[in-house]
Each structure stands twice: as structure tokens, then as C-alpha cells.
Amino acid sequence: MRRRDREVKDLNEIVRIVGQCEVCHMGLAEDGRPYVVPLSFGFDVRGDSVTFYFHCASEGRKIDIIKRNPKVCLQFDCGHRLIAADRPCDCSTEYESVIASGAAEFVTDREEKVRALTQLMKHYETGEAFEFDSRMVDLVTVIKVPADQISGKRKKS
């Protein structure tokens, strides 16, 4: 990281940043070309490991790419605020961001799918327990990405 003064090293702080974000941008590589897609997400922390979960339709470009190349990059950002200045080039932005990478996996085990969907709902809802319609669990595709690298960065004035 070029700006070490902005690096967030503490995993608990990185997780806090991710928890504030509403969208994850998943970067994939298709035949050497980048493809980025915004996704809703959930996540689970166990010890020093963070696993991210996504739900989606069972077909489409993202699915096709992951089947050929499961390596992905995940990007989260939040806390944006423009810092105005008298000269345009002196403007800046406050932010917090996290970058993670890992290999995407399709979740096929029903219990694990329900756990993943529960984590996703906890991220966006009240955190209460949910019951999922079994037909919907069968229809939805769930992708998990255990992070093999994760880093955070922030700029606050």
C-alpha cells in the first residue's frame, strides 16, 4: 500500500468498515478482460477468517465467468465526503474502503445456503432470525468467497 498512513490493519476495524457498506463490487476476469458487478452481500467472521456471501440467479455472465475462473477481487467503500478547496486540484475525499480477494465457490449444501442467506439478511435487516421458503432456497444460487487477502484504507480529515 502506497499510503501507509491510511492503511487499516486491525481486522475488527476492517470488518466494521465492511459492515457499513451497502454494496460490494466483485471484479472478475473473462478471457483477460475485467468485468465488475455490484452485488448485495453478507459476511461471516470466524477467528481471523472472513467469508463473503452473495446470492444471484442461477445463470448469467457472472456465473459463466466464475465457472471458468473463480478468482475474484471484492471492493467495498463507504463514508464518502468531498473535501472542497479553493483550487480544484486541492480537493480531496474522505472515505473508508476494503479490498479482499479469494476463490469464489458455489454453495450447494442446503444448510450452508440458509446460513449464507441469513448472514446476507443480517447485513441488511434487523439481525433477527429469518425463515426462508424452501423453494426459494432451492432456486437461488449462493456464492461464497473465503478471503485469502483483505486490507483496509481510510482517509479522514
Topology readout:
Elements: E1 7-8, H1 11-20, E2 24-30, E3 33-39, E4 42-46, E5 49-56, H2 61-68, E6 71-83, E7 92-103, E8 105-107, H3 110-124, H4 134-139, E9 141-155
Antiparallel strand pairs: 1-9, 2-3, 2-6, 4-5, 5-9, 6-7, 7-9, 8-9
Structure report:
With 157 residues, the protein is α+β, with helices and mostly antiparallel strands. The protein is built from 4 helices and 9 strands; from the N terminus they run E-H-E-E-E-E-H-E-E-E-H-H-E. Strands 1, 2, 3, 4, 5, 6, 7, 8 and 9 form a 9-stranded antiparallel beta sheet that branches. Strand 4 and strand 5 form a beta hairpin.
Mean pLDDT: 90
Computed CA radius of gyration, to the nearest angstrom: 17 Å
> What percentage of the residues does DSSP assign to strands (E)?
over 45%
Helix share, percent: 10-25%
Structural class: alpha+beta
Question: How many distinct helices?
Answer: 4
Report the count of strand segments.
Answer: 9
Largest sheet: 9 strands, antiparallel
Compact description:
The protein contains four helices and nine strands; from the N terminus they run βαββββαβββααβ. It is of the alpha+beta class and 157 residues long.
